[in-house]
Each structure stands twice: as C-alpha cells, then as structure tokens.
User: Which sequence fits this backbone?
C-alpha cells in the first residue's frame, strides 16, 4: 500500500475491484487479487469520509472534509461531477436506481439529494433536533429514512424533502435505521440497547425486541402468522412469538461478511428458516430449535441478494450479486442447478405456484425459466429495456405473470409464450404490491401515493379506486372478498369489502334496506348501467 493508512474500503458490485480512501484526501482503486494499484482519484484536499460504488459499478461517489463531494468514472478515474456542501464530514449513499446520491452531513443535521447526471442539488432537508447519524433509501428511491441523536427516526419524501412520518420512542441516539424488505416497516437501533420494529401504516411500534443495538433488516412471518423471525448483527436469527414478543429460538452467530443477512424466510410448512447473506452462505435452520440443518454456498463468490422456497419446501433458490441463481436441496445442501442468464445482480426471484418454473428479475431484465433444467422459457423485455422492475406476481394458476416497471406500466405476460397480454397504465406513484383475485380476471394494486385500484385485466381498465392518506400498501385477502389497507394519521387498519358481481351488490342493498333509486353518480360508482328512462 503506497499511501497513508486507509480509513475504509468498499468492494465493487462485481467483486473485481476495491476502492480505499484515507485522511490525506487520497482515493485509490485496487485489484484485490494482485494488490495492483489500478487508478488514483485525485482532487480531494482533506480527509475522505466515504467512497461508494454506484449500483452498476461504473461510478464512484466520494465525500470529503474539504467541503466537496465528487462523482468519478470508475474506469478512467476522471472526475465527472462535483458538489460544494455546507461543511463538515459527509457520507454518501447511492439511490437504488443509481441516478441520485444522498449526502449525509452529520454535524449539521443536513441531508442533501444530489443529481448524479448533472451535479445539481435536487433537495435538502433538516428535521432532526441534533446530529443525523444514519440514513437509508427505500427500494423504489421515493423515500429516505434517517435516524438522529434526538432519538427519532424520520421518513422523508426524497423529491420534496417533506417529512412523511416521525417515529419517537428511543431514549437515546438512533444510530441505525433500515427499511424492511417490503418497505412497510422500518427497524431502528439505539444506544438505549433496544431495536424497534415500526409499522408505517399505524406509525406505532408493532413489536419491541430488546437486546441487539445493531438493528435488523431481514424479517419474515411464519405461515401461521404466530411467529416472527429477524436477523441480528452477529449473523444469528432470533424467532419470537408475534403476540407476546417472547424469544422462542436462536440460531448460531456467523463471521465476516456472512453476518450481513439479506434474507430470512420461513419454509412453506413453517418448520424451517432459510437465511442468505452477502458473504455467500445460505443456511437452513430448524424453526423450533434454531439448530442448523443445512449450509450451502461455499462456491458462491459474490454473495446473495434474494432467496425463495419451492412450493413443496424440498428446495430453495438463491439469487446472487454476480447475476446467477442457484437451486439447492433443502435437506442435503447439494447444489442441483446454476442459472447464469442475468446480466446484472438478481433483484427478485419467485417460484411459480406449481414449482415448475422460476421468474427472476435484474435491472431491465425478467426471465421465466424451467426450475428442473435451467432452460430459458421466456425473456420478457427487450435487451435495451432500462427500467427497474418490481417483484413478480404469478397468477394463482401460474399461466400469467404480472410485473410493474418503473416506466409506469403493469404488464400481464403469458407465462408460456412470454408475450405481453395486457398493459395497465399505472401512472403516478410507484406500485408497492400487486395481488390477483381468485377468479384471475382482476388484479388489485396499491401504490406509495395512497391509491388502491382494481383493474379489469381483459379490458385493461380501472374498475374501482380508493384513496387513503399516505396509505403504504393494500393486500387482498385469499378469497378476494376483502382488502386491508393501513391509514395514517388516524392509525387504524381499514378492511374494505369487494363485491364480486352485480347479484352480490343487489343482495347487499336488500340487507341494508336501501329502497330508493340510486343516483347516476352511485350507479357509476357501483358499475351499474344508466337507469332506463
């Protein structure tokens, strides 16, 4: 090492390079295999606080005590953008889409969102009463959660800087905040020795779990909804009674990068728990005792980003940072198959209901493939498609797949041919969840703007819509007769009935003793034809 002692380092997304920075303002890119210095990023004149790779590994964002933040070409070392800040140490965080950089000025209680393409400030916001200690982007990049010395966690609109939620309840500094995988909860960790899981819908603590001040970011419900599993910073998983909070089982701690667990998931039968970590290990535990049953992944170089059980629970699939998907025997840990058709990190993967196929997504790419052989059955988007994709949603019979894309569309695909069948204009806020009705003729969508919509798939039209203030997600019941939505600021969970057909609506009217003609507006609301003149 030819420069001052590195303060910290970061691996590139593909694991082929390492960036280090130090107190002298020097930033270097290295080959981790040979130790060869590949590039020097010259420009900072004081302590470099952070150097972060963009999600695609093409850029590096640095922030320094010289009052500047800079974006560099990671291939040539050329400085592309610079931003002059408010002073003091700063830490950078790329948005998941790689189009913006969040700058955290801890000493000044300041968060700045910076446009990575032109170097312009998009928005800045202050809200904590003291130092801001940590911040994290939501998966769709629309919101930011921050924690501070005031014992609070705040959720911001990343475009406007408006405070959407405030969570207060810790007695000391909130030094870690993280979104849950579904983005409907956050976890906070504090110097008061507690970690709290918060419900965004009710803006209240759903369950408080004392102990690990490092926090958790991987959670799952058991199929019975009686237990909750969460990770700890030492790589262990703790299983709790979802009502009482009593700890039921604990798994063993891990070491190195395998302490960073990205996925915790109960098996379909609820008797096992599977974890996946960025260090490359996936482990199956007994959910009742916490004992290890199977460990896999020693061959995986870049670690895992997502995982899913097969419907029968005999296998599980893991998606990796290097773009590969692996299928493992859940009992023996044997690697049965590796799928290598993705060009980038695997974002989501989901088994079909019959277990014969897997749908997996990466940046701009969605593939349906045969789980027994790895043969590609369908590639759903053209090669030049550049928009992020949401989590896939299989129809109950497995014949179709619904996918939201960030260009504002929900596309219904024929899962056998890979051809688009319908496109729904999901303009506005990003879609959080897509649910199929049992009859498979309609879907229900919920977005981050508080809109719940029911769509006629064949017609591609909106059948009904409901608006709630700051609703986070709406989830359809299994029988399709109700959906539940969380509402803020009043806090309650609202359950709404869904009429299946005209006959049901008429029966409801009879029960309610509505003996009058409906107004034209009411007839339109309930999907009835105009009254005969």
Assistant:
């Amino acid at each position: 090492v030819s420069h001052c002692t590195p303060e910290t380092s970061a691996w590139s997304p593909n694991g082929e390079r390492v960036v280090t920075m130090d107190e002298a303002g020097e930033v270097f890119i290295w080959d981790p295999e040979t130790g060869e210095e590949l590039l020097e990023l010259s420009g900072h004149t004081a302590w470099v606080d952070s150097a972060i790779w963009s999600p695609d590994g093409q850029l590096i964002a640095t922030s320094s005590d010289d009052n500047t933040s800079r974006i560099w070409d990671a291939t040539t070392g050329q400085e592309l953008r610079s931003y002059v800040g408010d002073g003091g140490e700063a830490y950078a965080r790329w948005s998941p889409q790689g189009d913006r950089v969040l700058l955290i000025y801890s000493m000044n209680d300041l968060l700045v969102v910076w446009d990575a393409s032109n170097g312009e400030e998009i928005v800045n916001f202050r809200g904590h009463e003291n130092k801001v200690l940590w911040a994290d982007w939501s998966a769709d990049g629309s919101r930011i959660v921050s924690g501070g010395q005031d014992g609070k966690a705040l959720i911001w609109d990343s475009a406007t800087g408006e405070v959407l939620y405030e969570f207060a309840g810790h007695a000391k500094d909130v030094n870690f905040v993280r979104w849950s995988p579904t983005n409907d909860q956050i976890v906070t960790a504090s110097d008061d020795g507690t970690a709290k899981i918060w419900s965004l819908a009710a803006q209240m603590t759903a369950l408080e779990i004392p102990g690990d001040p490092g926090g958790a970011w991987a959670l799952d419900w058991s199929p019975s909804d009686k237990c909750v599993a969460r990770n700890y910073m030492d790589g262990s998983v703790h299983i709790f009674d979802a009502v009482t909070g009593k700890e039921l089982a604990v798994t063993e701690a891990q070491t190195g990068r395998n302490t960073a667990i990205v996925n915790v998931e109960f098996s379909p039968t609820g008797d096992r728990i599977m974890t996946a970590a960025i260090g490359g290990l996936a482990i199956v535990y007994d959910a009742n005792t916490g004992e290890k049953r199977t460990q896999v992944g020693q061959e995986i170089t870049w670690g895992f980003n997502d995982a899913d059980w097969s419907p029968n629970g005999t296998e599980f699939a893991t998606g990796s940072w290097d773009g590969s998907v692996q299928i493992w025997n859940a009992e023996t840990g044997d690697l049965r198959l590796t799928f290598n058709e993705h060009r980038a990190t695997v974002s989501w993967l989901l088994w079909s209901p019959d277990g014969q196929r897997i749908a997996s997504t990466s940046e701009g790419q969605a593939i349906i493939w045969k789980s027994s052989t790895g043969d590609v059955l369908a590639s759903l988007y053209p090669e030049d498609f550049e928009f992020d994709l949401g989590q896939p949603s299989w129809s109950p019979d497995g014949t179709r797949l619904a996918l939201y894309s960030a260009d504002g569309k929900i596309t219904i695909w024929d899962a056998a041919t890979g051809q688009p069948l319908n496109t729904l204009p999901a303009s506005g806020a990003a879609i959080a969840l897509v649910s199929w009705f049992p009859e498979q003729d309609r879907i229900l969508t919920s977005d981050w703007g508080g809109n719940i919509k029911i769509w006629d798939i064949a017609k591609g039209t909106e059948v009904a819509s409901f608006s709630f203030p700051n609703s986070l997600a709406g989830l359809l019941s299994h029988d399709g007769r109700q959906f539940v939505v969380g509402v803020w600021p009043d806090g309650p969970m609202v359950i709404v009935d869904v009429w299946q057909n005209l006959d049901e609506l008429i029966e409801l009217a009879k029960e309610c003793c509505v003996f009058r003609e409906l107004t034209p507006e009411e007839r339109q609301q309930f999907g009835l034809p105009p009254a005969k003149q």
Q: What stands out?
A: Confidence is low (pLDDT under 50) at residues 1-8, 486-495.
